[in-house]
Amino acid sequence: MLFKRRDKETFWKKAKQMVWPQMGFRRLADYYKYRTIRINASEHSIAAGVAFGCLVSWTPTFGTHLLQCAAFAWITRTSLIAAFIGSAFGNFLTTPALMFIAYHAGKIILTFLGHEHLLVSHTIDTVTEETLETNNKIFLPTLIGGYAVGILTFPLYYYPTFYMVKAARAARRARIERKLHEEAVEVTGQVK
Q1: Given a cut of 80, is residue 3 above it in pLDDT?
Q2: Helices (DSSP H) in the chain: which residue ranges?
Q3: Dihedral, CA atoms, 32, 38, 42, 46, nearest 10 degrees?
Q4: 10 has a pLDDT exceeding 80
Q5: Most buried residue, 1, 18, 53, 187, by CB count within 10 Å?
Q6: Any idea of the CA torsion for 71, 72, 75, 77, to the nearest 10 degrees?
Q7: pLDDT digits (tens, 9 = 90+) for 80-131
Q8: What global pTM score does this model have?
Q9: Picking from 20-24, 35-39, 50-54, 162-166, which range would have the lowest pLDDT averaged per residue?
Q10: What does the alpha-carbon distance between residue 95 and residue 30 come to, in Å, rounded to a whole number?
């Protein structure tokens, strides 16, 4: 294989890299940014894919986020790779805050719609001792709130990604044209 490691990484080394990358979070973010820009798709497709990935990260359906990204990307004909990259928004650092906000947004929505009976009226200590029905009273508001907040924040992910990809591609085109012009001047000897 062309880029295979000489010494295979152990399971624990890979797990550590997933939690705390050796290259640092800034470099990892830059890596994902460049990977997103270089995806072979339109600016709209990439931006919508990233936004769908971030939208899915708001939901408490862990383990199905990539499946949901794939479904949204397939239905809307957006970039699947960009959706997978966007789903990285829901990582171990952001998930507690996302679930807290989603749960409280779901509580507000259910209360507004008159479905207070679907909410938990106990403390968190008794919730862990209660039945599956009580746990559903936590899951349902979080699911509803997660999709609601995800839909509301969709433009916050879409537009910055769209303009970032558009600007990066324009800069790359200008760089390539400038290089071609310099090579043409060098070959022909003309200065215009």
Answers
A1: no
A2: 11-19, 25-37, 43-57, 65-76, 80-86, 95-112, 124-129, 132-188
A3: -10
A4: yes
A5: 53
A6: -120
A7: 999 999 998 888 788 889 988 998 888 888 888 877 766 665 555 555 555 5
A8: 0.75
A9: 20-24
A10: 21
**Between vectors from CA 58 to CA 56 and to CA 59, what angle results, nearest 5°?**
75
As a residue count, the chain comes to: 192
Residue closest to 168 by CA, chosen among 78, 31, 28, 36: 36
Tokens of 46: 């990439």
Query: Domain ranges in the chain?
Result: 26-159+168-188
CA 44/CA 161 separation, integer angstroms: 9
Tokens linked to 128: 């862990």
Take residue 99 and report the two structure tokens written for it: 């679930």
Residue 152 tokens, joined = 């509301």
Residue 39 buriedness (CB in 10 A; 0-12 / 13-18 / 19+): middle
